[in-house]
Hints:
Blueprint: H1 14-25, H2 45-50, E1 54-57, E2 66-71, E3 74-80, H3 83-89, H4 92-95, E4 123-127, E5 138-140, E6 155-157, E7 164-165, E8 186-190, E9 193-196
Antiparallel strand pairs: 1-9, 2-3, 3-4, 5-6, 6-7, 8-9
Amino acid sequence: MSSHAGTAGPQTTKRDFLGLVTAAGAGIGVAAIVWPFIDSMNPSADVIAAGAPIDVDLSKLEPGQQIVVLWRGSPMLIVNRTPDALKTLQSPNLLSRLSDPNSTVMQQPPYAENWHRSVKPQYAVLVGICTHLGCLPGYMPNPDPTTPMPNWPGGYFCPCHGSKYDLAGRVYSGVPAPYNLPVPPYRFVNDKTLRIGENPPGVIFALTSVVQM
């Protein structure tokens, strides 16, 4: 399966893009990411910059895989979460380690104010920017007894200052990042097509509404 980068908007510099590629590949086990970037049907740079919705084909996204697309110049993380990962998200042991396990802070649209922070439990859709200083957290989905912390259940780790998030983008307690990763506006056009930048019918939500990017 081939990998190729999405078209970057004018706000995305070459240095930002290279950093995104590096962060997306950091600390990833076998088969964690098969195709880290797709071009979302090749929208033009001016369309991305204007914030127009983009469609993402999920038909080839395998369980445990993540893809990253650019929308409005920011990385959007899309993960096909496994059944085991979904069980972990509800684990009392994990919940006790999180700063905002119930998503009480406005970091997501109303349709993502649930335990999985998404429209469908299977798919996570997150803005891939750490809420501490805007770094790019790395995808580390596999449980590990020691790295990056004892009894790591899988999630995101920001190597810049050590902030950690679970696979729903919920931030751990005692780390520099103060809030959960934002969830962008999105909806499903059909079972395998995700549209980022557009809410489900009857819902009004903009990414500018979150407490912090």
